[in-house]
Design goal:
Nuclear Transport Factor 2, Chain: A, alpha+beta, 2 domains, 7-stranded mixed β-sheet, 13 strands, 9 helices
Amino acid sequence: MLARRSFHTLVLATALFAAACAHPCVPDQAGTSSAATRFASSLAAAFAAHDATAVAALFAPGADLELVGGPRARHGRAGIEDAVCEALARYAHAHLSLGRIWAGDSAAVVELVFGGVRDEHSVGVVAAAVIAFDSAGLARAARIYLDVPTLVGQVDRSHLPDGVEIRAPVTAPPGTGVTVSHHTATEAANLAATDRIWGRLDAHDAAGTLAPSSDDYVYDDFSGPAPLDKPATQHMVAGFLTLVPDFVIASRPTYFAAGDDVITESVEHMTARGQAVVLHGLDVKRFAHGRVKHEWQYANGAEALTRLLGIAIELR
């Protein structure tokens, strides 16, 4: 669910960077899949070598790199190289472990774990990147979903507000493998089921939102402290909708099915503390026999903390 677990989870809401398509897109999902696979393996190798120039070379000359919910986007190879140099300087032994890849017609999602050492404390956070490629297979836009409060808290818990819980450092991604969209009948059915789920959430129907899920359903928001089962998720959704009664999913900029999974980037509108708030999210639903069995969500809770509470959480 894009809804959050009580007010703490509301504070740890999600974010999105919407990039304009300024270059030709890879015209089919097979092209996107091969570009994403090459990009991911080359990115991990360049990070392992601590070679910021090699990382930047994987991007088109005019590419944009955004840490969702971060202070600013980086533009062009020089800006991207500077961002990587900052990360390598901040975290000793910085590395990326590759997880799953989902490829659609014009964009791919690459899952990874960012790890390293800061002030003698190990960090490890599950993250994901939504990437669009140009016709040469270079990344022209990348939006990174990585929870900054988790990184900060793994180094020094005192820098987080009271009540914000985080998970321990992660060393391995939830899974591996490449899944490509083939526009099958099963994928179409999963998309239709997902449409109904988002519709029930928009209607503020917590029970209806969870109704298409299996009894052993698990919801795993990586900006939260631990996964939730179905009853706990339904309780969380109901509580969230009570806190923000005008919540609505305004748009879904990236939306596709790949195998048993449905990937959604969503823009959420709501009012909190008398102010209009726009938040964004990346969500992956896994179906089995027509029902949602597992759901993963990637976020940067720093955006929500800033917009909803005025609390700035920055990497140190």
